[in-house]
Design brief:
Layout: H1 4-8, H2 33-39, H3 60-66, H4 71-90, H5 96-100, H6 105-118, H7 124-148, H8 153-175, H9 197-204, H10 211-242
């Protein structure tokens, strides 16, 4: 039977990601290896006495890592603070200028345009809707991949935050369905090119007169999703720092 120290030098006992020899923390799922094995000793065939071999000699430099304050924790904490600050610059009323000046607007636009092509086989309505739909779905697909493929819940919360940001990016587009003042990708307004996506979609559904109300709802939902993702990410970091993750071990192949 492998010792606990040998196991720590091969794969993470929870997500099976490769671990460097002597690693105290998994950079993929965020567990503290020693803490995890303390709570799942029988499931991994690790004698309680062998857990001591996972920890290096007691010194001030390693105390923080064993408490969960390793490089992964610090990096994630910094990212979380940056996202929180960024969120404060994006929330508010529906404002096209604020969203188009955002760093993420251009990447979002790439997925938006790709969505039109992706949904083309499903008719004109879905082709038009596919742009906005895809730019929201892509981050959610990423979140699902982080959860089920790498078991990285913190990364999943960042992807969910991105989905919320995309809702904020779509809201001004909806809000402009009747006004048609928004400058589009080609440099012209909707009025100059006979409408745009959401002018067509809302008119097709007979609710163009509710464009401002719908945009406000989408804006509010986006803000709620972003704030919820930040709160979830904070809780995950706190639990990681305390070494109190209690998830069942990963049993996939």
């Amino acid at each position: 039977m492998e010792s606990a120290a040998q196991g720590a030098g091969n794969d993470c006992p929870k997500c099976r990601a490769p671990l460097p020899v002597g690693a105290l923390e998994c950079l993929h799922c965020g567990i503290i290896v020693e803490k995890y094995l303390e709570h799942h000793p029988r499931e991994h065939g690790v004698p309680i006495a062998a857990l001591a071999s996972l920890a290096p000699p007691d010194d001030a430099a390693d105390a923080g890592a064993r408490a969960g304050f390793g490089p992964a924790f610090v990096g994630r904490a910094i990212l979380l603070v940056m996202l929180a600050i960024w969120t404060t610059t994006l929330v508010g009323g529906v404002d096209a200028n604020r969203m188009t000046s955002s760093f993420l607007h251009l990447p979002d636009l790439v997925f938006h345009e790709a969505g039109h092509v992706l949904f083309m086989p499903f008719g004109r309505f879905m082709t038009v809707l596919g742009g906005s739909l895809t730019q929201v779905l892509v981050p959610l697909v990423c979140a699902g991949a982080f959860l089920w493929q790498t078991h990285d819940r913190f990364a999943a919360t960042v992807a969910v935050w991105w989905a919320g940001e995309n809702l904020l990016d779509v809201a001004p587009y909806i809000n402009d369905a009747r006004d048609l003042r928004l400058v589009l990708l080609g440099g012209h307004t909707g009025a100059e090119v006979e409408g745009h996506d959401w002018e067509y979609l809302l008119n097709a559904m007979g609710i163009a007169h509710r464009d401002h109300a719908i945009a406000a709802v989408v804006q509010g939902l986006g803000i709620a999703v972003m704030i919820g993702a930040l709160v979830a990410g904070t809780l995950i970091l706190i639990r990681s720092a305390r070494g109190s993750l209690r998830d069942p071990p990963y049993t996939g192949t």
